[in-house]
Amino acid sequence: MATYCPNPNCGRKLKLKDWKVNCPACGTNILYYKMEERLLADADKVELEHVGFQKRIDRAKAAVVGSKWAIARLVLLFLPLGVLFLPLVKMTINAPYIDKTETFDIIKLFGYIFDGLDFDVVFGLAGTAAFGAAFKWFLVALVGVIVVVVCILAGLVTCFLASSPKGFLRSVLFNGLGIAGAATGLLGVTRFGSAIAAVLPGAVQSQAGLGGYLVILAFALVLALNIVIKTRGGVPVKYKQCYVSGFPAEEVADALAAGKTLDELRAERAAVEAAETEAAEAAPVQG
Q1: Potential cystine with 135: which of 51, 114, 125, 239 (Cβ 3.0-4.6 Å)?
Q2: Are strands 204-208 and 89-95 parallel, antiparallel or unpaired?
Q3: Alpha carbon 137 to chain centroid distance?
């Protein structure tokens, strides 16, 4: 990137040979030219950025612990996750030399998916005439479980954004998808059980556990609480008072919106202070 002399009346393009402190064309000290103004502008920029960052911090704090409703919402966000540790699926296998009944919570289910499930076999069976319907529903159930887990994690990760302008819509999206994912998982498990029973009567039985239904209820409770908070006007946010160049941040924001600059605000303040000082000096001394 080209470097130019900071003097607006010069603007000479500086080359590598122009290594001296002063501009070879106008003699301006390149390093210290209007240093105070530049430092002040940098300070203003930092303080304005801090104001925006502080507001986000204040909203995040309010979203998590800003009121009893916010705390209740934070607690309820963990409810769908806790319910996943209840029985989600119950499977029974009655075959020669095999008589086994097992229930799966989220730990066992994911352990089976990642360690014992051969997806090549599953997709192969899903393409057959005999087992195609059953294993297509099996895949639907897996998709539903994955959607539920993603929605739970998304809700927990973004909980501190609940008081942001899009916080309510985000909650509706995550909890709505969570309910849909849980319902899809339940439907997939139920249809898989009936389809596999039609092909292998009495050999394999699969049914949804209580946990799957409670996941829907948990998401619904979180969504209902967010609706209650929304109808009550949201969680109040207590913004920390911030200052920019000694002015309240709100006053600066209004001035900038009106087209003023911080330099103009400082000039007005200096004029007022000068007038007050002059008036104080001109006032008669009480003897």
Answers
A1: 125
A2: antiparallel
A3: 33
Strands 13-14 vs 3-4: parallel, antiparallel or unpaired: antiparallel
Using an 8 Å Cβ cutoff, are 174 and 50 in contact?
Answer: no
pLDDT at residue 97 greater than cutoff 70: no
- Return the pLDDT at 197: 83
Per the DSSP assignment, residues forming a β-bridge with 13 are 4
41/242 Cα distance (integer angstroms): 17
Mean pLDDT of 105-110: 89
Tokens standing for 147? 């959607």
Is the entire prediction scored with pTM above 0.85? no
The DSSP annotation for 185-243 comes to HHHHHHHHHHHHHHHSTTTEEEEE-HHHHHHHHHHHHHHHHHHHHHHTT-----PPP-E
Whole-number Å distance between alpha carbons of 68 and 74? 10
